[in-house]
Design a protein that fits this description.
Layout: H1 10-31, H2 35-66, H3 70-77, H4 79-103, H5 113-131, H6 135-138, H7 143-171, H8 177-208, H9 216-219
Helix pairs in contact: 1-2, 1-4, 2-3, 2-4, 2-8, 4-5, 5-7, 7-8
This protein binds protoporphyrin IX containing FE.
């Protein structure tokens, strides 16, 4: 009989993660007496929930190569739904940004166009990755184009997270160095994992080379 956790996959996992993001946001709004401050807290909280979900999708395949076990294999299997949950969490981030703009009329005028540029690029990338996660759209792309888009998109989002945390270290709190360091560690894990995958592929290719292609001296 499948265990409870084993059945928490696919859209069920997405529904659970999306419900957790909504419950967290609702709780913050309910507990804070000042609606504008509450909305600002929702912006921060959803940026953080998005970060956790993004990291899980970002390192999944590398982790499964470096530390193969049931959990890391599960991460790879559920990567699509974790990625979609990240997009959902960031949709709530966007909703909270517009709500905050409505509650605080100084918000948008205080932000120059350049301030919004990385975030806007981020949302375009998230939208592209989301729509191409569905078969009806992804079948229009070649496997190579799909892979290139998703690899470039994930690195773009990682860069935007990095910038968002890094710029807050001197201006808001040195504690922002913690998520920035976590992101750097995730980048290192991804690089080492991809390197290990490439070297495994090379070894497998070498093993598959037919014997007769070797010079006789090497055959013994
Ligand atoms: C135009 C689009 C965006 C706007 C206008 C925007 C706006 C904001 C605002 C107002 C905050 C809260 C500032 C504060 O009180 O400290 C915030 C926090 C944050 N946003 Fe966004 N954002 C956008 C897109 C994005 C994207 C695409 C990402 C990441 C991929 C992102 C990541 C973050 C992070 C990491 C934080 C800091 C959360 C924390 O305090 O821990 N944002 N954003």
């Amino acid at each position: 009989m499948p265990s409870k956790t084993a059945s928490l996959t696919g859209w069920k996992l997405f529904a659970l993660l999306a419900a957790l993001v909504l419950a967290m946001s609702a709780l913050i709004l309910a507990l804070n007496a000042d609606p504008a401050e509450a909305m600002r807290s929702v912006i921060r909280a959803t940026a953080r929930s998005s970060f956790v979900l993004f990291l899980a999708a970002f390192v999944a395949s590398s982790l499964a190569t470096l530390v193969p076990n049931g959990f890391t294999r599960g991460l790879v299997r559920e990567r699509r739904y974790i990625g979609l949950s990240f997009a959902f969490s960031h949709l709530v981030h966007l909703g909270a940004i517009f709500s905050y703009g409505a509650l605080n009329p100084q918000f948008w005028p205080s932000r120059g166009g350049l301030t919004n540029l990385p975030g806007t690029i981020g949302y375009v990338v998230i939208a592209l990755l989301t729509v191409t996660s569905f078969h009806a759209v992804s079948k229009r792309l070649s496997a190579t184009a799909w892979k290139r888009l998703h690899t470039a998109g994930m690195w773009t989002i990682a860069l935007i997270f990095g910038l968002s945390f890094y710029k807050r270290i001197p201006t808001m709190s040195t504690l922002y160095a913690i998520p920035f360091a976590i992101l750097c560690a995730a980048v290192a894990v991804r690089w080492v994992g991809k390197w290990a995958q490439a070297s495994k592929r090379t070894q497998a290719q070498r093993r598959n080379v037919p014997q007769h292609t070797f010079p006789p001296a090497l055959e013994s």
